[in-house]
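Before relying on records like the one below, remember that each one covers exactly one chain. Contacts with other chains, cofactors or solvent are not represented anywhere in the record.
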Amino acid sequence: MGERRNGDGRLLEWGAASESRPGQTVAGDRAVVNARPDGAVVAAIDGLGHGPEAARAARIVSEVVGHYRDDDLTALLARCHGALTHTRGAAISLAFLSAGTSTITWLGIGSVEGRLLSGDRSAPRPKESLRLVSGVPGHRLPAVRPATLELRRGDILIFATDGIEASFADSLTLSGSPETIAERILANHWKITDDALALVLRYLG
């Protein structure tokens, strides 16, 4: 089962592509993009394992992120941890894109990779990677310190669950819509033995 989603606004445009593990009818990987007056909150979620229980954990996180989108990321992660207590748990990466300061603040627990790539060929920036902390929200939540980076117009933010090969960004073509880029990642780097999600956002400034 595959899923394609997209959206756009004044701050960013985004697209996501996902697949469930063969033989499963539901996926445990989920993307959330919620607008706020001062920016946008983004979550990429990987419910542990696969099947209905993984999907349930991912759904719970998406609901918490939607309801408490105005919280700072550390508080939001703590809320997700509390809500996941009676589930398998989930790997979670969160980001806040600030409209006022043109920055991204992000953090991650588990295995959902994050990359920030330059969308401006005339003034490229070094690739930035989200620093992931070992843990399982719902069972073990270590201390996490969010990192903040400057955003430039056209920058590309990508989140990928561990059903996507870690090398997905090494020679990635950034042309086309975010949804097209997400589909490209899925087509070329899905491991097939696991659920997979690629979430791509383009910062419009």
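The mean pLDDT is 92.
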